[in-house]
Design goal:
heterodimer, A: about 130 residues, alpha+beta, four-stranded mixed sheet, 5 helices, about 45% helix, B: about 130 residues, globular
Chain lengths: ~130, ~130
């Protein structure tokens, strides 16, 4: 029963957040500096430091919820975050340059997803651009 | 909470001390940084992906994936394979003396250059043709 409630809650989160710019649902938050329109991607702790410095958006899920999710659910939530970022037309800042991306990491998966959507790395290596 | 205590004990018994640590409220992310005054090791987790990085004791220097140090020492050609935290820990325990050699004053500049080259080569292998 608990599992069903959790799954329904998770589905509601995905639906409720599809068009949200600044959301807080079931404790899953997207931290937003709406004025900047910039999202930071990278490995921890670099992406947190860069986002704090420039006041940008990051993807965040509290540890307790993250740990209860399956890898497929984790990637699903991550992918939804990226889709909303694309829809908003955010600037995409790379806190971790390509030559420091770890094989097998979520960050590698995020980059591959965005490259498949047609993004390229800017000549200074700091941004993803169309 | 991470399961690195055995490795941390090994490092401490080899002259390392914990100089910085942080645990995020999100994703279970953390990092723990050790130094022996010659170089630093950082254990971290990013969205459940645990890893180890290394840099010289100069805090302005770049961090390098310990997997690249392994590739350098073992002359590995395929750089796209994921390295588990257990592999990192085993490598540290087996090769700590050789790693220290790479980061001593005499060898560091050469090591840094090779790690930069390997990082670029790995990016090419992982993401061919993605530069604008």
């Amino acid at each position: 029963m608990k599992k069903w409630l959790y799954l329904i809650s998770l589905m509601l989160f995905f639906v409720a957040n599809t068009n949200a710019a600044n959301s807080d649902f079931l404790g899953v938050r997207e931290v937003v500096a709406a004025k900047t329109g910039t999202t930071v991607l990278g490995h921890y702790p670099q992406y947190v430091k860069v986002a704090e410095t420039i006041g940008a958006r990051t993807f965040q899920i509290p540890t307790k919820i993250w740990n209860k999710m399956t890898p497929a659910q984790q990637w699903g939530a991550n992918q939804k975050f990226l889709d909303r970022m694309i829809l908003r037309g955010d600037n995409i800042r790379l806190a971790t340059p390509l030559n420091q991306v770890k094989p097998g990491s979520f960050y590698q998966k995020e980059l591959n997803y965005l490259f498949d959507k047609g993004y390229k790395v800017s000549s200074d290596g700091l941004w993803l651009v169309k | 909470m991470n399961n690195n205590e055995k490795t941390y004990s090994f490092l401490k018994s080899n002259g390392f001390e914990l100089i910085e640590k942080d645990t995020s409220a999100f994703f279970g992310d953390y990092y723990d940084t050790f130094t022996n005054d010659s170089f630093q090791l950082r254990f971290s987790s990013s969205k459940s992906f645990e890893t180890v990085d290394i840099r010289s004791s100069n805090p302005n220097d770049n961090w390098y994936d310990l997997a690249l140090v392994k590739a350098l020492l073992y002359d590995e050609k395929n750089l796209t394979k994921a390295t588990t935290i257990e592999e990192h820990k085993d490598f540290l325990q087996e090769e700590l003396a050789n790693i220290a050699d790479l980061f001593n004053d005499r060898n560091y500049l050469t090591t840094k250059k090779r790690l930069e080259e390997l990082g670029n080569e790995r990016a090419e292998q992982m993401f061919p043709g993605v530069r604008k």
